[in-house]
Write a structure and sequence with these properties.
Number of strands: 4
Number of helices: 4
CATH topology: Alpha-Beta Plaits
Oligomer: single chain
Length: 123
């Protein structure tokens, strides 16, 4: 019998530090091909609303050139509190849950901390 230990609470100093710095959410989502244009319109509406939040640094929507029903959003927030406020906002509930989810087929989102520093290319 295989057993698994429950995951440890993410309390490592590096994790805590990452949650206090700006966060980037990368969310990939798809609709059915028949709903692709409407899905994009709703994502645009949501981006406009999210950009009014005090803790939202940016919110961009990208549409796949190969699969037009597939979208990616790249959202930046000042920190964990701003992301939590975003997810608790009226427009999140009304637009994402009320308008976007009925068109949603699949997707996933990940939250990232500060970018990894990469040295400049050699000239």
């Amino acid at each position: 019998m295989i057993t698994h230990e429950p995951p440890a609470e993410p309390t490592a100093p590096a994790y805590r530090s990452a949650m206090e710095s700006p966060l980037t959410v990368v969310a990939a989502s798809s609709s059915s091909p028949d709903n692709a244009d409407e899905f994009g319109r709703v994502l645009q509406k949501f981006a406009l609303a999210a950009r009014t939040e005090a803790g939202c640094l940016s919110f961009e929507v990208f549409r796949s050139v190969e699969r037009p029903e597939h979208y990616v959003t790249v959202e930046r927030y000042t920190g964990a509190d701003a992301l939590a406020a975003h997810q608790a906002s009226d427009h999140f509930r009304e637009i994402v849950l009320g308008e976007l989810m009925p068109l949603f087929v699949s997707g996933a989102a990940d939250v990232y901390g500060a970018p990894i520093q990469v040295p400049p290319a050699r000239e």
